[in-house]
Amino acid sequence: MVISSHDIDLIYEVSDAVYVLRHGEVLAAGDPGEVFACAETMDRAGLTQPWLVKLHSELGLPLCKTEAEFFQRMHNNAIGAIKEAS
């Protein structure tokens, strides 16, 4: 299936591979996490990084593919921290 969209968060979550275009020129292609993590490429394309990729880049958090995976990981980390503190 091929999807064309400016909804970067959706594309990040549902795609196995992506192409970032600018005026018909392919700026980058490959794994969504790797492509969208390149802030320079995203800036050249006039796009913003998916929010999950921004968290990964800005805060050094693990790169999650979906919102559900992110919240599950945060939940598990919180439970682990509580158990360690007990």
Automatic annotation (TrEMBL):
Keyword field contains Hydrolase: yes
Keywords: Hydrolase
UniProt protein name: ATPase component CbiO of energizing module of cobalt ECF transporter
GO MF annotation, one: hydrolase activity
Species of provenance: Klebsiella pneumoniae subsp. pneumoniae
EC numbers: 3.6.3.-
Record carries keyword Hydrolase: yes
Superkingdom as given in the UniProt entry: Bacteria
